[in-house]
Amino acid sequence: MQLTSSKNPLLREIRQAAANGRPTAEGWVVIEGPHLLGETLGSRWRPGTVVTTPAGREQHAPLLANLQVQPIEVPARVFAQIASTESTQEILALVQPPTASWRNMIDNEMVRTVSSLTIVLDGMQDPGNAGTIIRSAEAFGATGVILLEGCVGVANGKFLRATAGSLFRVPVAAGVGRSEFVARMAVAAVNLYALTASGETPVAEADLRSPFALVVGSEGHGVSREILDAAKGVAIPTKRVESLNAAVACSVALFEAARQRGSNG
Q1: What secondary structure letter does DSSP report for 107?
Q2: pTM
Q3: Residue 110: its pLDDT value, please?
C-alpha cells in the first residue's frame, strides 16, 4: 500500500501521536527506528501498522519480514513530516502495548513464589530517568514496574528510547492511582519501601530477599507524602553529596537487591 500525502488521516494521527508523545485514540504507540522495532520481536508488543519509504523498505527488508506486517510506503519527504526525530532511518510503526495487571505484580501466589521485586515510580516525569530505571529493572531482575499517576507516559519517544528496548520485556503498568496503590499495599504480603535521602534504613540493611515494592520519586518532589506515610524509608549512604540522581539511586538499590538474592541480574 502506498500513501503520498501527509494529510492522509492515518499519517496525521501518527504525526500527532509522535509529536505529543501520547498513544493514538485507539491506544497505539508510535515506535520509531529499526532498533526499537527489532526489540519488539518476541515480545507481547505487536505492530499493527508499519510505515516506511522505498529506501527504508529495501534497507530493512529482513526486519519487515520478521515483523510479518505489510508496510505502508510513503515518499521520504512525507516520512520526514510525520516522524518526531531525524534518526528513524525511515521506518516506524504503530504498536499495541500489552495490558499489565499491576495488582498481580505486587501480590499473588505466583509473585510470592518467585519473590517479586516491583519498582514503583511516583510522579516521575523525566523520560530519561524513567527510561533508565526500566532498563535497570530488567538488568537486575525486577518482576514489574508501576508508573503511578503523573508519571511520564509510555508513548513518550524519549522515554521509549531511554529504555533501550527493556520496556518490551518488563511488565509495566501505567496511570495507577496513589490511593488505590496504598490501599492494595496495606493488605499485600510484601514489604513497601520508599527510596529517600532521609530514609531511616540503609538499603543494604533492608530485607530485599522477600517480596517487596520500592517507590522512587521525582527529582524535584521526591516520594509523595501519601506513599511515605505507608512505606518504610530506605536510603543509600553517600559522602559529600546530599543525594543521588533518582535513576542512579534506584539502580544502586536494584543492584543491592540482586546481591542479596544471590544474582548479578
Answers
A1: S
A2: 0.90
A3: 54
